[in-house]
């Protein structure tokens, strides 16, 4: 880094993508819990490229080393196998707390572990933020609105959650994580941010994840039945991963302490969404859409009937709005899975 230079400099170590060379007073020590997962690994890429020092904590429950293996050995990067249910000590300036399984089959597989991860994991990471005076960002979720009676959902809506249903380990876990976060803020002055993330998709979603976007794409690429649950009239609004990462970093570096919705307001009925995915895959495979089968399966219990973010706050306070259309993002993701299938890794 040359203080006289107006242009950005990069360090180029041959094995790695070139990372920005930041002056020491701008370089942050950033901890990313859940950094080997889908969202976490994209966040790590962006923070590394921006020139920060990044430590990933992950127990590899749903994430994998390969998601961040391209950074292993880089002087700015560290990967630590650790379960956030146990305390962890490190000096850092910012904590992005993402560790938690996010897909219904995974978080319902061991509901007690899920709620422990949300409660104890968040407690431990807030304790670390308090000790090190790090700024703390919680990856919360649109699920805290439950099966919403208000549509679209603004941050001021308190939600409609079944506290003892099969989704409660996740929904209520995130709700209590938000409560803890504001408890540490009010009581101990911890500097906090809360992102309420709506359905997000993109490359590196675990193909066995069970969430709708990965299921539909993998099923269509393998010419298996595309499974629409419960008739497909329920809605979701899907955002592409790069938009979410822009929003998370903008929120962390803002002074907005209130919760902020991050999502794309492009809302689809799930049955129609299956048709959109089918057509994109058919186009890539140069097949006729009628060659793909869409089948109906039972609706999972407590499945929210509609969901769309009100993103006015993100727009006004962060100057953030999604830039990727769902179709553009789906095209990227379909090509990614196709390439992985060709190389035999999925
Ligand atoms: P993911 O399952 O791909 O990633 C979660 C990561 O956390 C994985 O790497 C997993 O191994 C790790 N992890 C889980 N439990 C842990 C524990 N006890 N200790 C340490 N590591 C642990 O899911 P994702 O989609 O990347 O989600 C990341 C975060 O974003 C989660 O907190 C999730 O609730 C939130 N979120 C995601 C979405 C979405 O659509 N992707 C929507 C709303 C909220
Ligand atoms: N879904 C579906 N087929 C699948 C997987 C999911 O129809 O193979 C439906 C699911 O019932 C829900 C929506 O798609 O209504 C989104 O499900 P996902 O698990 O991706 O996310 P979440 O329910 O947590 O929003």
> Could you spell the SSE succession in H and E letters?
EEEHEEEHHEHEEHEEEHEEHEHH
Number of helices: 9
Indicate the proportion of strand residues.
Answer: 15-25%
List the ligand species: nicotinamide-adenine-dinucleotide, uridine-5'-diphosphate
The total of beta strands comes to 15
Main-sheet strand order equals: 5-4-3-6-7-8-13
Q: Compute the CA-based radius of gyration.
A: 20 Å
Low-confidence stretches: 1-5
Helix content: 25-40%
Shape type? globular
Q: What integer is the average pLDDT?
A: 96
Structural class: alpha/beta
Distance from N terminus to C terminus (CA atoms, Å) equals 41 Å
Largest sheet: 7 strands, parallel
Membrane topology: Single-pass type II membrane protein
GO molecular function: NAD+ binding; UDP-glucuronate decarboxylase activity
Domain NAD(P)-binding: 31-333
EC number: 4.1.1.35
């Amino acid at each position: 880094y040359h203080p006289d230079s107006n242009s950005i400099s990069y360090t180029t170590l041959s094995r790695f993508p070139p990372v920005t060379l930041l002056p020491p007073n701008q370089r942050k020590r950033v901890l990313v819990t859940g950094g080997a997962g889908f969202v976490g690994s994209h966040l790590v890429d962006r923070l590394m490229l921006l020139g920060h020092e990044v430590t990933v904590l992950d127990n590899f429950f749903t994430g994998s080393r390969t998601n961040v293996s391209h950074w292993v050995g880089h002087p700015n990067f560290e990967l630590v196998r650790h379960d956030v249910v146990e305390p962890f000590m490190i000096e850092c300036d910012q904590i992005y707390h993402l560790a938690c399984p996010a897909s219904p089959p995974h978080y319902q597989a061991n509901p007690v572990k899920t709620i422990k991860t949300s409660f104890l994991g968040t407690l431990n990471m807030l304790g670390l933020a308090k000790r090190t005076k790090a700024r703390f960002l919680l990856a919360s979720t649109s699920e805290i609105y439950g099966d919403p009676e208000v549509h679209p959902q603004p941050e001021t809506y308190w939600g409609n959650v079944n506290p003892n249903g099969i989704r409660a380990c996740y929904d209520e876990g995130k709700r209590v994580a938000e409560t803890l976060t504001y408890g540490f803020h009010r009581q101990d002055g911890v500097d906090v941010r809360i992102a309420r993330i709506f359905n997000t998709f993109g490359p590196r979603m675990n193909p066995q994840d069970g969430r709708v976007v990965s299921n539909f794409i993998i099923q269509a690429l393998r010419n298996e039945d595309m499974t629409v649950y419960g008739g497909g009239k329920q809605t979701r609004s899907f955002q592409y991963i790069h938009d979410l990462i822009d929003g998370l970093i903008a929120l962390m570096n803002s002074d907005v302490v209130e919760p902020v919705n991050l999502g794309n307001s492009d809302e689809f009925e799930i049955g129609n969404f299956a048709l959109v995915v089918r057509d994109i895959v058919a186009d890539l495979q140069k097949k006729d859409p009628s060659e793909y089968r869409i089948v109906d399966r039972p609706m999972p219990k407590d499945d929210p009937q509609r969901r769309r973010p009100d993103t006015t706050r993100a727009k006004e306070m962060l100057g953030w709005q999604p830039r990727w259309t769902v179709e553009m993002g789906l095209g990227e993701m379909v090509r990614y899975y196709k390439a992985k299938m060709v190389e035999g890794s999925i």
